[in-house]
């Protein structure tokens, strides 16, 4: 079926200046990728000079920052307003857990250098700071500050030591109260004590019988010739029934 066409198509010659051929050449140039990128390839071969402060570069950087900020906050903007059930961040379990984890992580990072270097510190024993710390510890130590009486730091037969012993004995509460030891267990009557005598004197002062004397107990003899007595006798005779 195609034998005659295959044999004839190799013998056909078309002039190159016909409209059909010219149109086909133009179409080939339009759809050619190499011809389409020829100017770009030539420009690339010549190199280019693009400064960092050029306006297109600044514009591209600003656009990139805006797009990056938008993408970074896109999830947050979508979830904004959807938090329910927690009035504060402390009441939210996820936020509390995140804060706790961040705190632990920060504490671990903060102490990492110390834990790495604490076993590698070498301080000379004769350093000024070490000596000062030892002397300070000696001064504030209660063991070195107190010396009990049996730990004598001087000869026991010195005059000042003997005098100090006597002063301690005089100030001692046991020695001060030793003269009262023989009174323990001895019977004692309260009669004649200060409190009893005081109570008796107060009772005498408050006693109505001793403070006032009744008139019928007083020894009194009236004068018979006194004017009021004579007048009383006359009145008695006048009022007498006899």
SSE blueprint:
Blueprint (H helix, E strand, L loop, with lengths): L2 H6 L10 H13 L1 H4 L1 H8 L9 H18 L1 H6 L13 H25 L10 H13 L1 H4 L13 H13 L1 H4 L17 H13 L1 H4 L15 H12 L4
Keywords: Actin-binding, Repeat
GO molecular function: actin filament binding
Protein name: NEBU protein
Question: Your description of this structure?
Answer:
This protein is mainly alpha-helical. The chain has a domain at 57-112. It has 14 helices and no strands. The protein has helices at 3-8, 19-31, 33-36, 38-45, 55-72, 74-79, 93-117, 128-140, 142-145, 159-171, 173-176, 194-206, 208-211, 227-238. The mean pLDDT is 79. GO terms for molecular function: actin filament binding. InterPro entries: NEBU/NEBL (IPR055297), Nebulin-like (IPR013998), Nebulin_repeat (IPR000900).
Average per-residue pLDDT, rounded, comes to 79
Helix vs. strand class:
mainly alpha
Low-confidence stretches: none
- DSSP summary: helix tally: 14
Q: N- to C-terminal separation?
A: 206 Å
Estimate the global geometry from the Cα principal axes: elongated
Strand content: under 5%
Helix content: 55-70%
How does the major sheet shape up? none
Strand element count: 0
Helices and strands, in order, run as HHHHHHHHHHHHHH
Radius of gyration, CA atoms, in whole angstroms: 65 Å
Keywords: Actin-binding, Repeat
Pfam families: Nebulin
Organism: Ibidorhyncha struthersii
GO molecular function, one term: actin filament binding
